[in-house]
Amino acid sequence: MDLNSLPPDVAEELEAVVKAINGLRAGAANHTPSRSIPTSDPAVVAVSQANEGAMKDLVPLGFTSLGYAGEPRKDGSIAASLWFRHEDGTVCGWLGFIKTKDGPRLVLFFMTELPGPAYCTTIRGGSGLSLARPPFVSHADLDAKVSLTEMLAQHRARVSSLPATPTKVATMEDAIAMIERLHQSRMDWRASIAEDELFRADCKSVLANSYRTMKPGDFRLIYSNAVEWLGFQPEQELGTFTYRLKRS
Asked: Number of folded domains in the chain?
């Protein structure tokens, strides 16, 4: 299913959503694994002062730096991120700064792997834009204002709710291998889903991000036909905007 096969009123409302989905799908299909890079790399030198300043706030929580990893951008440059692990080995992740209209914003990512496989991931300060996630990925998308202490507490609470022992991470290689297993598991899951179902799930996932950043009235005005067609039911609870995905 694609934009051309949708009812005209739904297609008009979802045009920007489908464009975002196509971009996210292309990024996932062209995924290149991160690789460890030395501190002398120009990409690291450009961001080291800011990244290492942010790392100092993680140290009191039990985190230790693993060094830098680089991921190629579309223009051929390298995006460098600082990776870390918790002293107990059950949580690893990375941090880096992204450019926004309001200036640089720190993005932090935590990940834990459990047998199954099952994954708990938490991101703070991200865009919120994502393709549909498989049921074995428990994900939380937190606002940049959430404290690091609260971020870690929420992440650990979700991990502890699963009846399995987390995989231990000791090195940068362990951390990169784990995130690659997560990526491959997601891609395998996506390949197992019928395209119509996957398209609907991706639309709901991207719309969920739109809903959290828009006034409810504006959201319903712009996406009313798409919401009905998808079975997407935005709700307002205790003043906090949440969403519920109803099976199509």
From this structure: 2
In this structure, are 185 and 159 located in the same domain? yes
CA angle, corner 190, sides to 79 and 30, nearest 5? 30
**Residue 128 exposed, middle or buried by CB count within 10 Å (0-12, 13-18, 19+):** middle
Side chain identity, residue 243: Y
Structure tokens given for 244: 């519920």
DSSP 205-231: HHHHHHHHTS-HHHHHHHHHHHHHHHT
pLDDT digits over 65-111, tens only?
Answer: 999 999 888 787 888 999 999 999 999 999 999 888 888 889 999 99
The full DSSP string for 127-163 is ----PPPPTTEEEEEE-TTS-HHHHHHHHHHHHHTSS
Are 174 and 56 in a shared domain? Answer: yes
Token reading at 160: 């502890």
